[in-house]
Design goal:
Layout (H helix, E strand, L loop, with lengths): L3 E5 L6 H12 L2 E4 L1 H10 L3 H6 L14 H10 L3 H15 L5 E5 L2 H5 L5 E6 L2 H12 L3 H17 L12 E4 L5 H16 L1
Parallel strand pairs: 1-3, 1-4, 2-3, 4-5
Helix pairs in contact: 1-9, 2-4, 4-8, 7-8
The structure holds cytidine-5'-diphosphate.
């Protein structure tokens, strides 16, 4: 079975939570594509060279979930050659036998435009910053500034900018519990699986 669920959206919108829950519910493989860009930035040196030789071990490095790693990821993610070096792996993963869920910024638009289910998960910047702050702590206003800065960079870049695919279902989780957001996504996938 080839079956791809593409989940895109801005920083801290809940993509990862929804993606993991959908994958577990339907027995699909899951790839957090943000981790690829975080790992490339964390490797240091020339980001293009880093992307070309990225290994699973690089994704197990400590600290990849930090705010700083997120900002660094968003900078290297704007480089066309970095994205190109990571494309084949993501496409292969998306179309692997047994089905897959990928979350990121360009899954429904660039990596897998033929995905059977496309979701664009979003929430207001304030809500997203609050959620991220609950995870990482620190100064909440600073977290909000970071979220806004990263979204602007991700949506404004020329190469694979973050945007909802024309045929994506929008899921605004500003007023939703995790359970509700997951239930909506699960219902969509179940309907498509038949
Ligand atoms: O978890 P969060 O939404 O905060 O970030 P992430 O999904 O780990 O992504 C980190 C950064 O990687 C983003 O800000 C994007 O710049 C970049 N990214 C991308 O360009 N394309 C993807 N498919 C996934 C992430």
């Amino acid at each position: 079975m080839r079956f791809t669920v593409a989940i895109d959206g801005p920083a801290a919108a809940g993509k990862g939570t929804v993606a993991r829950a959908v994958a577990a519910r339907f027995g699909l493989a899951h790839l957090d594509t943000g981790l690829l860009y975080r790992a490339v930035a964390a490797k240091g040196g020339d980001p293009v060279a880093a992307a070309q030789v990225l290994t699973p071990d690089d994704m197990a490095v400590e600290g990849l979930r930090s705010l700083e790693a997120g900002q660094a990821a968003s900078r290297v993610a704007a480089i066309a050659e970095v994205r190109a070096a990571l494309t084949a792996f993501q496409r292969g993963f998306a179309r692997r036998r047994g089905g897959a869920v990928l979350d990121g910024r360009d899954i429904g638009t660039v990596i897998c435009p033929e995905a059977e289910v496309k979701l664009f998960v979003t929430a207001s910047p304030l809500v997203r910053a609050h959620r991220r702050w609950l995870e990482v702590g620190g100064d909440e206003a600073e977290v909000l500034r970071g979220v806004i800065e990263r979204d602007a960079r991700d949506a404004g870049r020329t190469e694979a900018p973050m945007r909802a695919a024309d045929d994506a279902v929008l899921l605004d989780t500003s007023q939703m519990s995790v359970e509700e957001a997951v239930a909506r996504a699960v219902a969509l996938v179940a309907a498509r699986l038949g």
